[in-house]
Amino acid sequence: MNDGLVAEFKKQFPKGAEIQAMLRQPARGFSITVLFGPSGGGKSTVLRCLAGLERPDEGVIQFEGQTWFDGATGVSLSPQKRDIGFLFQEYALFPHMRVEANVGYGLTEIPKVERRRKVAEMLDIFGLTGMEQRYPHQISGGQQQRVALARVLVRRPRLLLLDEPFSALDATLREEIRPELRRILARFAVPVLLVTHERSEVISLADRVAIVDGGQIRQTGAVHEVFNRPADTSVARIVGMETVVPGKVVKAEDGLVSVAISECELTAVSTIKVGSEVEVCIRAEDVILQCGDIPAASARNCLEARVEAVTSAGPMNRVSLDAGFSLTALVTRPACEDLRIRPGARLMALVKAPAVHLITRG
Amino acid sequence: MDWTALWLTLKLAVGTTAILLVVGLPLAYWLATTRSKAAPVVETLVALPTVLPPTVAGFYFLLAAGPDTLLGQGYQTLTGGLLPFTFEGILFASVLFNLPFAVRPFTSAMGAVNRTLVEASWCLGVSRLGTFFRVVIPLSWAGILTGFILSFTHTIGEFGVVLMVGGNIPGVTRTLSVAIYDDVQALDYDGAARTALWLVVFSFVALSVTYSLGRRRWSI
To answer: 3-state class of A10 per DSSP?
Structure first.
């Protein structure tokens, strides 16, 4: 394989944690692959191994046919020779250098005039013209992020690694910057690997996603595929399927199956055989709540449910229901008011068959 | 005022500080960044002169640098000269004895440099040596200057080690502090007072500069 990134390695930490990475990024040119998972799952370590800042114990890392690391032969290229761009969580701007010197820092091998031209071009792209003579502590968090990106991209790296690039920014700024970041990165035609634990960042930025948990890459694929068809229950929980309950397939017909969960039965789109033990996963956003009788609805699953608890989740409310099994729904606050959703209330929960995802157990 | 002793003392202090910069900076960086199990032993060896009486250090150095020892013979083969009771001898001893005054502030300043900045520099294609000079040194300059001033000042006032290793040879090993001791022995209190006052003023100024530098740090 001559293009893209091939990384299959292991790293054991002295305190027992083990990181295992199996990652392929076939794309040339611009694409964003997000390493997504809970904090402490090993995402940043994977990124640091790719950058050459950590040395794996065994395995191989290759990029565009060049071996960066090979545990068997002892090859381990230094970060300087990998030709990557690495954006650190806190940006790591040099505090003793002005913006201009920070951006031009990695361009020492080209003539001064050329360097100045390249730096000016980058400052223009990132909207930093006029900031040349400022020190990092004299500019805002968002500007610091742009200086750090300009400093990395001015060298035209072959692969860009971003470690939680938005974690140092406040929530409002993050929302603003995300689409802008994707637009700017696309101009540089560079493959990007981005680490985050924010689901919204995956949805708004990623082309592909790799779910990292417990030191392992659990599933890799297109975002919609991984988010809608998680391979196991841990991935299902990570991608936001808050309802994960055991069930059994009792009927299969025309690509639809009926799954028995406790006393209830749910319809799902699946080809799993009758008799299979499954985990039934439902995303909280896919559950619709309704009061009173339901006129004819397209949703295949209409469950009588009792509200157990209502908790705040940002602009939404998380409603825990007893529908014969534990079911979670996310609804807006006004909807909660209109439907008088409070603990003890009885209502109907609607779930479309394609929103019920089944994972075979065992 | 013994101008010859002053000139000799300045020569010793400049020589000691210059050698300490060359030897101490890489040693300090190693100590600040290594995970080696040997580091505490090296740190102890470096710090030893701060707790040992100068006469003890001087005595051992005298024994180690004698003409029959490996160090003494090696030096003789290289230069044709001897170490005890020569300027080179007191310079060598002074470097060893002042090692902690330079290396410890260097180490603590370099240890305080954010590791991420160093890694960012590597990822921007800059070599380890380039990173050392362009990131680590500029960000630890206050600590480096502190070590520089402390070792310079300490050498100016050095007495025990110089006397043990170099004796009291005018123009060769007779430094200011040895000259004061000589003046007092000869009951020339006025001469001793003049030199002593000069040393006190110099030390006060040097330490004031050091402490005011210690309050300056880069921030982000």
So the answer is: strand
What distance, in Å, lies between the first and last C-alpha atoms of chain A?
34
Q: Which of B119, B127, B220 faces A137 most closely, judged by CB atoms?
A: B220
Minimal-distance CA residue of chain B relative to A50: B123
Give the helix ranges, DSSP H, for chain A: 43-51, 79-82, 99-103, 112-125, 141-153, 171-187, 199-205, 223-228, 233-238, 333-338
Cα separation of A230 and A359, whole Å? 8
pLDDT surpasses 70 at A294: no
The predicted model scores a pTM of: 0.84
Q: B218 vs A96: CB contact, 8 Å cut-off?
A: yes
Mutate to test the interface with A, among B35, B115, B119, B124 (most CBs of A within 10 A): B124
Determine whether B204 is exposed, middle or buried from the number of CB atoms within 10 Å of its CB (0-12, 13-18, 19+).
exposed
Rounded CA-CA distance B50/A96 in Å is 33
Chain B positions touching A94 (Cβ under 8 A) are 117, 120-121, 135, 139
Q: Which of A13, A44, A96 to mutate to test the interface with B (most CBs of B within 10 A)?
A: A96
Distance CA A41, CA B194 (A): 69
ipTM score above 0.95: no
Q: Write out pLDDT tens, residues A234-273.
A: 999 999 899 999 999 999 988 899 999 988 899 999 989 9
DSSP three-state, residue A268:
strand
pLDDT 10s digits, B71-124: 888 988 888 888 888 999 999 999 999 999 999 999 999 999 999 999 999 999
Q: What is the pLDDT of residues A269-286, one digit of tens each?
A: 998 999 999 999 999 999
Burial letters for A272-290: b for 16+ Cβ neighbours within 10 Å, e otherwise?
beeebebbbbbbbebbbbe
Distances (CA, A) of A56 to A11, A49, A348: 5, 6, 52
Count other C-beta atoms under 10 Å from residue B75's C-beta: 20
